[in-house]
Amino acid sequence: MVRIAVDAMGGDRGPAEIVAGALEAASDTIVPIIFGEAGLETHGLELRETRGVIAMDEKPAEAVRSKPDSSLVASVRAVAEGTADAVVSAGNTGAMLAAGLIELRRIPGVMRPAIGVPIPSKRGPSVLIDAGANSDARPEHLVQFATMGAVFAEEILGIANPEVRLLSIGEEREKGNQLTLEAHELLAASDLNFAGNAEGRDILEGAADVLVTDGFTGNVALKTVEGTILTLLEALREEITATTAGKLGGLLIRPAARRLRRRLDPDAHGGAYLLGLRGLAVIAHGNSSRTAIANAIRLAARGVEHDVVGALATRLPQRAETV
Amino acid sequence: MVRIAVDAMGGDRGPAEIVAGALEAASDTIVPIIFGEAGLETHGLELRETRGVIAMDEKPAEAVRSKPDSSLVASVRAVAEGTADAVVSAGNTGAMLAAGLIELRRIPGVMRPAIGVPIPSKRGPSVLIDAGANSDARPEHLVQFATMGAVFAEEILGIANPEVRLLSIGEEREKGNQLTLEAHELLAASDLNFAGNAEGRDILEGAADVLVTDGFTGNVALKTVEGTILTLLEALREEITATTAGKLGGLLIRPAARRLRRRLDPDAHGGAYLLGLRGLAVIAHGNSSRTAIANAIRLAARGVEHDVVGALATRLPQRAETV
Questions:
Q1: Helix (H, G, I), strand (E, B) or coil at A114
Q2: Is there a contact between A32 and A45 (Cβ–Cβ < 8 Å)?
Q3: SS3 assignment, position A204
Q4: Which of A14, A94, A289, B290 has its CA 20 to 30 A from that of B61?
């Protein structure tokens, strides 16, 4: 039985949608606990009352300090205190990171926590890390991100000896910026299964099991993938519905389009792991639907079952020493 | 009449494909001049004989210095010497940049040339700059890139008072890395029509007329857009052809898919401008088809007709002073 703290007040769609997602995920093995304002309808799920909401545009560190009883901070604290096994929030990502650092703290040896996003690429699942926790990173951070991504790939995605690639602007080792040129050397010298650079076009293609990058580039790349998929499918729909033959064709390909969405939508896993903390936190998209929330809760539960935090704690400091 | 120097030896598909593209672009107003090895079949187009080829993986500066008579360097030099009005190459991008710096030199006041790529976004054409010339850039470089992009948008895309946005990881001004945070302040204080940050998901959506970024991020983002489009359309084709109904539907939507490709394919313009030099250079994709080469030649001709270099020379130093 895994207890997942769910921040009901985070996200753009309101608490009712989050609670609906939690209900969808609730099972014999998954027990969602709702963190939200008094009186919130939870349809039988446990409610832990919180006070205050951290808005999407609030400054993370300030917000976390000034609102210790908010749903976001309280749900993270529950993991630190052991009254929940993991936390899921669709709220302010920066605040989640700040709350994680304050309440859960880092695994010894971890320099910076990072966001690992499972990407359902063409060749199967892969991990993009860091997807946005560290806008500016140093080469040695990237090596740690890669190690955390490898643990994620092994434990959660079930990939043995995962291949790591560095997101850059060319496959040759001399292509890149200062950060990636130095990180490339460190990665090549590490005990990771490092296979060299990858490019933006490899992300959805699934060139590597773990794609490592700084949080700025990773965030831009991830949102570019998401945006391109949305714009492309919407534009295709427009073109298809412009003619009668197209409309008929559109009806006939609808199941195929639906399968495709399931196969490649970066949202399919519902959330991303905040890795490197002494507790498991999953960050869901701000505009998560109930299904996305349910997926995020299942993703968190899988992380608890596979003891991702324990695996990181065992393997990170050892690896860090080799750098 | 515009004379375009065409590097026939650059690109992955061989000289015959490049020459075919040049033939396709040749018209009453466009005169392609082929730069290639002796004996190359040019089907009546002027051939200027060159010696040596710069390979895609050669180190740019060394290659340009050691092969001054190669097709790439000779075609760039033709613009410097006034025997051609612009140059198009599908060869080594770094070598084009190096040859441009050596043979054409920078427009006075320009700190760094940048690659401006026209993106056929949903709301119409826009420019992404820098798409890869400068892997590491400083905030003041980004302001110049933005200015060059704005000139490009005005002169080539016909957009009056183009809106500039900074590619970052959130719309709020405090979201970003050190580079974009500082660039944001400089852009806000400039006389550009600056509208704040954009995100990766806005690239294909066309959030801005000019999207400014450093060359590393821009290159990753551009290749991510291209790769996502390719992977998505290929995966859609696979799903569609998996069932009989899907196959029939696929036939019916084929014209729509073709219209979509024309509308959103970043390759549609055939090439990117290398901006900031005292002569016009267009860089085509390494794997350019004849049609892409023809489009790149037309793009170069349009730049000559609109005197993009003259417009940059007039407006850049003035703008640079305001920074």
A1: strand
A2: yes
A3: coil
A4: B290
Inform me whether the C-beta atom of residue A172 falls under 8 Å from chain B C-beta atoms. yes
Interchain contact, A217 vs B216, CB within 8 Å: yes
Residue-wise pLDDT for B173-188, tens only, equals 889 999 999 999 999 9
Give the whole-angstrom CA distance, residue B190 versus residue B164: 11
Residue of A229, A253, A264 lying closest to B253 (CB–CB): A253
Give the residue from A112, A168, A216, A251 with the most B CB atoms within 10 Å of its CB, the best one to mutate.
A216
Q: Do A216 and B132 touch (CB under 8 A)?
A: no
pLDDT of B146 higher than 70: yes
Tell whether pTM > 0.90: yes
Task: Assign 3-class secondary structure to chain B.
Answer: CEEEEEECCCCCCCHHHHHHHHHHHCCCCEEEEEEECCCCCCCCCEEEECCCCCCCCCCHHHHHHHCCCCHHHHHHHHHHHCCCCEEEECCCHHHHHHHHHHHHCECCCCCCCEEEEEEEECCEEEEEECCCCCCCCCHHHHHHHHHHHHHHHHHCCCCCCCEEEEECCCCCCCCCCHHHHHHHHHHHHCCCEEEEEECHHHCCCCCCCEEECCHHHHHHHHHHHHHHHHHHHHHHHHHHCCCHHHHHHHHHHHHHHHHHHHHHCHHHHCEEEEECECCEEEEECCCCCHHHHHHHHHHHHHHHHCCHHHHHHHHHHHHHHHC
Cβ within 8 Å of A, B 186-205: 199-205
> Which residue out of B138, B179, B224, B261 would a mutagenesis test of the A interface target, given it has the greatest number of A Cβ atoms within 10 Å?
B224
pLDDT of residue A248: 87
B55 touches chain A (CB under 8 A): no
Encoded tokens for A177 = 């910026």
Instruction: Mark yes or no for CB contact B204/A246 under 8 Å.
Output: no
**Minimal C-alpha gap between B248 and chain A (Å):** 7
What's the DSSP call for residue A285? P
Give B-chain residues touching A245 at CB under 8 angstroms: 252, 255
What is the per-residue pLDDT for B320?
Answer: 46
Nearest chain B residue to A137 by CA: give it.
B177
Domains of chain B: 1-108+276-307 (3.40.718.10), 111-267 (3.40.718.10)
CA–CA–CA angle B114, B119, B120 (5° rounding): 160
Judge whether A287 is closer than 8 Å to chain B, CB to CB.
no
The one-letter code for the residue type at B130 is D
From chain B, the residues in CB contact with A169 under 8 A are 132, 135, 215-216, 219-220, 223
Q: Is the pLDDT of residue A265 over 90?
A: no
Are B21 and B7 spatial neighbours (Cβ–Cβ below 8 Å)?
no
pLDDT grade for A317, boundaries at 50, 70 and 90: low
- What pLDDT, on the 0 to 100 scale, is given for residue B323? 42
**CB-based burial of residue B52 (10 Å sphere; 0-12 exposed, 13-18 middle, 19+ buried)?**
middle
Residue A320 — pLDDT band, cuts 50, 70, 90?
very low
